[in-house]
Amino acid sequence: EHTAIIVVAAGSGTRLGYGIPKALVPLAGRSLLEHALDGILQANCAAQIIAVLPAGDAPLAALAGNHPSRPTCVEGGATRSDSVRSGLAALKPGTERVLIHDAARALTPPEVFREVTLALVRGAHAVIPVLPVVDTIKQVANDGSGTSPHVTGTPARESLRAVQTPQGFHAPTLLEAHERAAGWTPAEAAAITDDAMLMEMLGERVDTVPGAAAALKITTKPDLTLASSMLQERKP
Ligand code: C5P
């Protein structure tokens, strides 16, 4: 088995307003990180699990260390990309496939991990879980007059997808993409919001598999409320 999963959990979680790292925020009595690791363990598709944690965070390190998935723990960086790079540095030599997963998508069903892994096994170099978008999405720009941005276009909604994690990659290709990105200016680096974008910039084809409503990114208090009701519905 040559698949690894990196779960990035080094974000500050300021938007949740708990004053603790987001991965430590409780949902039905367990931290988001533990829920994320539960899903990864159930999916049973990786030989190595790497948890990227906030530097010096003893409580999260203890939770990860005691989790039955037995993750390798490493310290994250200032941006999500930096945290992914810390995780990549801990990959075992010879890793063929790597899944990058946000701890904030704590309730991602095991099937999504399996679908992403299966697509990689079948030969995809990059694969992301996606959902159709329900909102109409506008492109906007600022004309510099100090007013709110104005609309410059409306992409056809049928051609748009909302992107989730785990995002799966041919590991050597993702490593190459991250090596290139390491030399970018902070402004260039800030424009990269996911790993698939790096692959697109290398000219790699990125495939899609169906995502899941339960894989929502828990970012705000209402998200936490929604996640908690989803968790209740899951129980028999
Ligand atoms: O901040 P954002 O919601 O985009 O974070 C997505 C995921 O990336 C979260 O799981 C968060 O813990 C992780 N992250 C990280 N290191 C950072 C910033 C975010 O591991 N410096």
Characterise this structure.
- The model has no long low-confidence stretch (mean pLDDT 94).
- By secondary structure, the protein is α/β, with parallel strands linked by helices.
- It has one domain: Spore Coat Polysaccharide Biosynthesis Protein SpsA, Chain A (Alpha-Beta Complex).
- It has helices at residues 32-43, 58-66, 80-89, 110-121, 171-181, 186-190, 195-201, 221-234; strands at residues 3-8, 26-27, 30-31, 48-53, 72-75, 97-102, 126-132, 139-141, 150-153, 161-163, 167-170, 207-210.
- Strands 1, 4, 5, 6, 7, 10, 11 and 12 form an 8-stranded mixed sheet that branches. A two-stranded antiparallel ribbon has the order 2-3. Strands 8-9 form a two-stranded antiparallel ribbon.
- The structure holds cytidine-5'-monophosphate.
Give a brief description.
The chain has 236 residues and is of the alpha/beta class.
Alpha plus pi helix count: 8
Biggest beta-sheet profile = 8 strands, mixed
The appropriate CATH architecture is Alpha-Beta Complex
What is the CATH superfamily label? Spore Coat Polysaccharide Biosynthesis Protein SpsA, Chain A
Helix content: 25-40%
